[in-house]
Amino acid sequence: MAVEPLAGEQMRLTRRVRRRIGSIALQVGLLAGSFFMVMPFLWMLSTSLKLPKEIFKYPPIWIPTEIAWSNYKDTLTALPFDRFYLNSAIVSVSSTLIQVLAAALAAFAFARLRFKGRNPLFLLYLATLMIPFQVTMIPNFILISRVLDWYNTYQALIFPTSFSAFSVFLLRQFFVGLPMELDEAARMDGASTLRIWWQIILPLSGPALAALSIFSFLGSWNSFLWPLVVTTSNEMRTIPVGLSAFQGEHNTAWNLLMAGSVIALVPVLAVYMVGQNWFQRGITLSGMGGR
Amino acid sequence: MRTRFLTVLALLGVLAIAVTGCAAAPPDAAAPGETVVTWAMWGSPAELATHQSVADAYMAENPDVIIEILSEPWGDYFTKMQALWAGGDGSVIPDILFLWPTPSYAAEGVLENLQPYIDRDGYNLDDYWPDLLESAKYDGDVYGFPRDIGLEVLYYNKDVFDEVGVPYPDETWTWADLESAANQLKVVDDTGRVSRYGLGMEGGKYMLWVLQNHGALLDDYRNPSTCTLDQPEAVQGLEFFANLMATNAAMTSDNLNQAGGDAAVFQAGQVAMIIQNASRVSAFNAAEMNYDVSVVPIPDGGRRAASAGGAAWTMSAGSDNKEDAWHFLQWLQSTNGGQRIYTASGEIFPALQSTAMSDAFLNPDNPPANRQAFLTEGLNATVGRFGYFPEWGYLSGNFVSPHINQIWTGDLTPADAAAAVCEGVNQYLQDEGFPK
Amino acid sequence: MASDASPSRPPPRWRRWRADQQSEGYLFLLPSLAGFILFVLIPVVAALVLSLYEWSLLSPGEYVGLTNYLNLFRRDPTFFKALGNTLYFTVTIVPLQLAAGLAVALALNQAIKGLAVYRLIYFMPVVTTIVAGALVFQWIFNKDFGILSAVIWRINELTGIPVQPPDWLTDPAWARPAVVMLTLWKNVGFTMVIYLAGLQAIPVELYDAAEVDGATSWRRLLYITLPMISPTTFFLMVIQMIGAFQLFDEAFVMTRGGPAQATTTIVYYVYVNAFEYRRFGMASTVAWVLFAFIFAFTFLQNRMQHRWVHYETEDGR
C-alpha cells in the first residue's frame, strides 16, 4: 500500500461512491417494499375508524370523512374484551415460556449430546410437523376432554400447543452452529452438562431464543381454532375467538373487527420490538452481507 | 446481554407459577331445584344480544329454568359442534342446537326425534310456511324447527333506477324484464371497464332459476336414483344466469365474492339489484339506503321457487333434560314467544306465518316498504336446491360445484357443465348403491 | 467404525463422553419429550389409525382397512387437482420466500437510516390478521373496482391502448399467483427474523479477516455469510416447504379454494373432508398421503444437505 498510495486513494474513492449509490438504491428499494408491506395495515387502521357506509365506497376512502373513535369503544363493550385480553396474556406467556424452556433443553440434547436413538428421535420430531393440524385436532380434543377432563380450562389452552417440533428444530439448528470447542473447554474445567447448557450455550443463543420467543408468543396470541374448540365460556376465551364473532353469517362488522384487530396487535408488536433488540450486534456501515 | 436474558427468564418463571396457580375452570353454578338448559347458536354480538333477550324473556316466565347460552362464531360453529360430538363427552354437548341442514344430522342419529313430542302435545305445525318443514324432516318425522325461512327477494336501489329511468320491478316482471332492466342499469365505460352491474347474485343460488323453470337437480332429493340437471328446463335456467354474467348484466360469481359480497357491492352502488334473503335488511337500513324489495322475476310459464330452508333449532339425542328442552323449544317457536322477539329485531323473516302477518314483521316504520313480497314468496317457497342425505356434501363438492363454477368462469357451456355434473353424480350414485 | 481406528488418528475428543451422555441426553429431552408424546405423537398416531376407518365424527366409526387409500387414488376427482396445486405453491413459494427473506434480512442487518422502523414495517404483515390482508389484496386486485386495476384502466383511458387488468382472483390462471403473493407478503417477515437471528451467530472475526484480505462485499456474502448461515437456510427451507405443502389459510380466506378449484390445496381438501363432508377417515388418509410427499422431499433435502450446509459440530446432520 505504501508503494502506490495514489492508486489506493483512488480505489477507496470509487468504493465510497459505489457504496453511496448502493445505499441510495437500498433505501429506495426498502421504501417501495415498505409501502407494499404496510398498506393492508393502514387499511385496517382506516377501516377501524370508519362508519359502515364508508367502508365499501368506491373509489376507496383512506381518511374517513368522520372519524369514528366510537368504534373502539363499541368493540370493547360489545364483548368482555378485558377478560379475553387477560386470557390471551396468560396463555401466551405461559405457553411461550414452556415452549422455549423445553425446546432449549431438547435442542441442546439433539445438537450437542450423543446418545442412542438420538437421530431417529429427531426424525420423529420432524415427521410430526408434516401432519396438518386439521387432522390431529380431533384426536387431541378427545384426549383433552375425555382423558384429561380439561375442557374449558387454561391447561387445555396452554399445554397442547407448547411442545411443537418446530421450536426444537429451530433451536437445534442454531446450537449446531456453535463451535464444539466451547463445550470441550468447559468440560476440561469440570463443568457439568447442565452448566454448559445454562452458562455457555444459552447466553450465546440470545438471538435464536429471541426469535423463538417472538414466534411462540405470536403463534399462541393469534391461535384461533384450538382455543375455539376447547373453550366454551367467555371466561376462558381468547382475543381471536372473541374477534371472530364480528364476522357474522350475513353481515360482518368490518369497522369493529378491524378496531379489535388493531387493539390485539399491540402486545405482539411490543414483544417483537423487545425481541429484535437481540439482532443488533455487529452492525456496521459495510455493504451487502455486512457483519 | 446474559443477565438481561436471565432476568427475563426468571420473570417468566414467576409468571408461569402464578398462572398455573390460578388455572382452574369456573364451576357451573346451578342452585338446587333449578334446571339448566344449554342452548347453542352462532351469532354476532348484535345477534347475541337478541338471543339473550329471548332467553331472559323465557326465564322470566319460567323462573325454575336457567337457559345457558353457548355462542360460537359463525365461521367455525359447525366445526366446533362436530368436535363436541366427536369428543363424545355428553356433558358438554348442548341440549338445543342451531343446525343446518337438519336431515343430514338426523341421519347420523345425534338428534332427538321431535315427532313424538309434537303428537303428544299437539304442537301446531300448520303455522309454518307450506314447504318449510320439509327441510327439517328425516324419514317422515320432524327433527327441528326452522327459526326463519331464507327465501330470496329482489332488492333494488331506487336511486339508481330513478337515475336511469327504469320503472321499479313488480310481481309482473319476467326473466325478460329482469334482463332488459339489468342491461339498462349497467354502466360500461369506453375502456370496457364495468363501473356498475345490473344484478349481483351469488353463483351458488343458481338452483333458483332452475326450479323456477320447472327443472331439478335430482329426481328425488332425499333418495335419488338419477341426476336431472341435464334436462332442457334445468339447462335453460343455467343458461339464463350464465348469459346475464356473460353480458355484464350480472356480476360473475367470483367477482362478486372478491368485491366483498352482494351486500357490499349493493351498498357501494356497484350493482343496482341483488337477489338475497331477508338477512340484508338490517345492514341496508343501518347504511340508510334508498331501496325496496320485490318478488323475484320468473320465466314465462314458470313458478315462484324461493328457498324454503332455514337453520333449525334441534334437540340433542343425548340431552339429559329433554322435557325442559322441549318446553323451551315450543316457546321459542311460537308467535308469542321467541319468534316475535327475533322478528322485531329486524334480522329475520320468521318461520311462522302468524308471526309474519303480525306487527312484528309488517311494521311500516323501516324499509323495505313492500314487505308483501316476502309473504308472496313464502307461500310459494320450495325445497330441492340440494340433496337431503349425508353424502350430499361430498357429492356436491366433488361432482357438482366444480363444473357449475366453470360455467361462471366461462370455461364450460351450461349444457356441457350439466352433462359433466350428471355423469359424475350418476356414477357416484351407482357406486354408493343409490337409491337406498 | 472401531476397526479402522488406528492409533495414529484417535477419534475426536468429544466422542469419549458418549457413555455418560446416554442418560443425560434423555434427561435433557424429558420435559419436551413428555409433552411431545402426549400432545403431538399420540394425536398423530391416532390420525393414522383413523385413516383406516370410515368416521363421520357424529356416529361411531367403522373399520374399512385400506379402502380410503384405494378410493383416494382410484375414484377421487379432486385429490390430484389439489396435489398439483399444492406442488405449484411449493415450488414457487419456497425459493421466493427464501430469497426475499434473505435479501430483506441482509438489508436490515446494516446500520441504515430508519432501521428500527423498517424492521417493524417488514414484520407488520406477520402480525396483521390474514383476514385483513386477504381483504386488501382482493380489493387491490378486483378487476372493476380495485386500485391496481384502476391504474391500468386509467392508462387505457388516457392513451387509448386497449390494456385491461387481468381477472386476478376470478381467472384460474391468475388466482394462483395472487395466492403466492399473499403468502409472500404475509411470511417474508418470518423468514427475515430467522435470518437476522442467524446472521448474529457469524463470528465478526471472519469478516475482519476478509476485510484485511481485501475481499469485496460480494465475495464476503458468497464465501462467509452464505456458508455460515446455511444451517439457518436449511431450517427455513424445510420449514417453508412443510408450510407450503400445508398451505391453507391464504387459500381459505382469499379464494375459498376457487375459482374452479384452482387454489384448492391438499390441506384445504383435508379440511373440507373432515368438517364439511364429515369424512374424517378420508381426511386422515389425505393427510397421510401428504405426509408421504413431504417426508420424501425432506428426506431428499436431508440427503443433499452435506453438499451445502456448513455445521460447526460434525453431527449436525
CATH homologous superfamily name of the largest domain in chain B? Periplasmic binding protein-like II
| Portion in helices of chain B | 40-55%
Q: What characteristic shape of chain B results from the CA principal axes?
A: globular
First CA to last CA of chain C: what distance? 18 Å
The number of distinct structural domains of chain C comes to 1
Spans where pLDDT lies below 50 across 5 or more residues of chain C:
1-11, 13-17
CATH class of chain C: Mainly Alpha
- By CATH, the architecture of the largest domain in chain B is named 3-Layer(aba) Sandwich
In quaternary terms, these chains amount to heterotrimer
Pair of chains with the largest interface and how many residues each contributes: A-C, 109 and 118 residues
Arithmetic mean of pLDDT of chain B: 90
CATH topology of chain C: MetI-like fold
Superfamily at the CATH H level of chain C? MetI-like
Structure description:
The complex is a heterotrimer of chains A (291), B (436) and C (317). Chain A has a domain at 79-245: MetI-like fold, CATH 1.10.3720.10. With 291 residues, chain A is mostly helical. Chain A is built from 13 helices and no strands. Chain B has 2 domains: 35-149 and 309-368, Periplasmic binding protein-like II (D-Maltodextrin-Binding Protein, domain 2), CATH 3.40.190; 153-305 and 391-431, Periplasmic binding protein-like II (D-Maltodextrin-Binding Protein, domain 2). Chain B is 43% helix and 13% strand. In chain B, α18 packs antiparallel against α19. The longest helix of chain B has 20 residues, at 2-21. With 317 residues, chain C is mostly helical. Chain C has 13 helices and 2 strands, in the order αββαααααααααααα. Chain C has a two-stranded antiparallel ribbon. In chain C, α4 (115-127) crosses α7. Chains A and B meet through α3, α5, α6 and α11 of A and α1, α2, β2, α3 and α11 of B.
Quick synopsis:
The complex is a heterotrimer of chains A (291), B (436) and C (317). With 436 residues, chain B is α/β, with parallel strands linked by helices.
Sum up the structure in keywords:
heterotrimer, A: 291 residues, mainly alpha, MetI-like fold, disordered C terminus, B: 436 residues, alpha/beta, D-Maltodextrin-Binding Protein, domain 2, 2 domains, 5-stranded mixed beta sheet, 19 helices, 12 strands
